[in-house]
Design a protein that fits this description.
Length: 346
């Protein structure tokens, strides 16, 4: 058993890509983003759709970079960047959010300020156009960290945020995805992920839980901020909440260590407290952001989970490890150089 576990670990580490950027005196990164991980390959993606994803990632990075260069805070940059992704139906957040078993779009989001260690999150919201802004409002305009459901929606309306009819979030592609999941009795609705049967089904339908978006920014004052927004899992039941709005699991920021945003099988990220674990390894074991991020993803993989994450430290070192076939991701340096990636080998 131990031998097989070690073998699995080695294989997993071989799958990790884009682990570190700027770690040894290279360019300083001011923003890193992701748009979800999964079974991504050029073979299964049309040139037109690939171009659309790359354009969307570039727009998000340019939006964040412009905010930073104009002197805005890392929080402002993260919020503005995630807005572009929430408004783009290509991603599983905002306009492109997936459907629950009941045919609803229920979204989660979180944001954290690395300077003050303040955080805000919303979960299970259905009428807030940009959940990331609601998460920030919870952080800045309330004494709480997380609000959920109708209460969070009432708070967002009171805070002056854009409220829309639930039909705004509908996209045919996501609706068709739900119908397919319903026909296959998708494992995404199974709460017991520990059984052999559910693990096998989870492997077959793994992309039903990917597409989360996230951003981490480093501003001119040296402050970090991280944000994550998601529609969760296709065909999810029972008001299921994933890791994205859980501070320390899917989202975390601390100027002393790094800002982190995760994407993947949320239950495993919650159980491993992945985002905070990276920060803790950096703080208590003096690990680099690259090594800590890689170790965190290895833990997720060893437990049977999959996905990826982005991380950025206060010196501008970035890490983007994942254990899937691909992850929508990108970086921008302090001098404005933008790079975007989708597939494992680019």
């Amino acid at each position: 058993m131990l031998k097989s576990l070690k073998t699995a670990t080695v294989l997993l580490l071989c799958l990790l890509s884009d682990v570190t950027f700027g770690q040894t005196g290279g360019p300083k990164y001011v923003m890193v983003i992701h748009g979800g991980a999964g079974t991504l390959s050029r073979k299964n993606m049309s040139p037109e759709k690939e171009a659309a994803y790359r354009a969307a990632l570039k727009l998000a990075l340019q939006t964040g970079y412009t905010a930073i260069k104009s002197g805005k805070s890392s929080l402002d940059a993260v919020e503005a960047t995630i807005h572009t992704l929430e408004d783009n139906p290509l991603f599983n957040a905002g306009k492109g959010a997936v459907f629950t078993h009941e045919g609803r779009n229920e979204m989660d989001a979180a944001v954290m300020d690395g300077k003050t260690m303040k955080a805000g999150a919303v979960a299970g919201v259905t009428v807030i156009r940009n959940p990331i802004s609601a998460a920030r409002a919870v952080m800045e305009k309330s004494e709480h960290v997380m609000m959920a459901g109708p209460g969070a929606e009432a708070f967002a309306k009171q805070a002056g945020l854009a409220i829309v009819d639930p039909s705004y979030f509908y996209t045919k592609e996501r609706w068709d995805g739900l119908q397919k999941a319903l026909r296959e009795d998708s494992a995404k609705a199974v709460l017991d992920h520990g059984s052999k049967k559910s693990m096998l089904l989870g492997t077959q339908n793994r992309d039903n839980k990917f597409g989360t978006v996230g951003a981490v920014a480093l501003d001119n004052a040296g402050n970090l901020a991280a944000g994550t927004s998601t529609g969760g899992m296709t065909n999810k039941k029972y008001g299921r909440i994933g890791d994205s709005p859980v501070i320390g699991a899917g989202t975390y920021a601390n100027n002393a260590t790094a800002g982190i945003s995760c994407t993947g099988w949320g239950e495993f990220y919650i159980r491993n407290v992945v985002a905070y674990d990276i920060s803790a390894m950096m703080e208590y074991k003096n690990m680099t952001v690259a090594d800590a991020a890689q170790a965190a993803i290895a833990k997720v993989g060893n437990m049977g989970g999959d996905g990826g994450l982005i991380a950025l430290d206060a010196k501008g070192h970035a890490a983007m490890p994942f254990n899937t076939e691909g992850m929508y991701r990108g970086t921008v340096t302090e001098d404005g150089k933008i790079e975007v990636f989708i597939f494992k080998k680019e």
